[in-house]
Amino acid sequence: MSTRYEIQDQQWRLIQKLFPPERKPQGGRPAVDNRWMLNAMLWVARSGAPWRDLPDTFPHWKSVYTRFRRWQKAGIWDKVLEHVSLDLDEESIMIDATIVRVHQHGSGAKRGKTKQAIGRSRGGLSTKIHAVVDALGNPLRFELTGGQAHDSVQGYEILQTIELTMKQVLADRAYDTNAIRSLLKEHEAIPVIPGKKNRRVKPKYDHDLYKERHLVECFFNKVKKYRRLATRYDKLACTFQAFLTLASILVWLA
Nearest-CA neighbor of 177 among 149, 208, 153? Predict the structure, then answer.
């Protein structure tokens, strides 16, 4: 039985060679096809259901989860995202952050909330996704922090790792800090950032270009269609980020 969550033929052709070949365990059952496994992972991501609730039409949930974690530990998800994001438009980049509420099942990891990018904000336990997208709204970079982390602090750290020379950087006024503006000036980047209300001298910026900043909001809307990302059920930050990477791959493939 097929579902509307399954990866399409043309999408699979672009990435299938990036996944490790299925190998039959010695003396065991034949390995399950990677595409079938990926479709099962997509069902979990889109439905938000626990792994144990995976329908019988897919492989056993434990086999799917094991392969999902194996690919995560081996860096396969990052490798696939890097492969599909080669054709990017970096004339301008946009940065923003969004809050994800942590479900009660998502807390309680052994390493503690701080290590797992869980913090406490107004709505309770939450995780914040900080993302950078290109001029077309496709994801370039994202990081996870606790929900209480300020956008500009993590934003500055992310921007330091990106080639900014002569690029237009779009962000809302939460990123209007002296540190970020100095960083952009150092790289001859063009800030398209409105000034905070408490600034005596309001910086000039391109109002028409600033309207394009909605594309980063559109990216958040796209990944939050995956219920596993709209609410955090995963205790481990690495697992939650793997789902975010998987959703970002599908954004590029779309």
Answer: 153
Q: For residue 108, is it left (φ>0), alpha (ψ between -120 and 50) or beta?
A: left
SS3 166: coil
Beta strands in the chain (DSSP E): 92-102, 119-121, 124-133, 139-146, 168-170, 190-192, 231-232
pTM of the model: 0.91
Angle at CA of residue 86, ends 85 and 87, nearest 5°:
95
pLDDT at position 1: 45
CA dihedral 139, 143, 147, 150 (to 10 degrees): -90
Other Cβ atoms within 10 Å of 183 Cβ, number: 18
- The alpha-carbon radius of gyration of the chain (Å, integer) is 20
The owner of tokens 């994800």 is 100
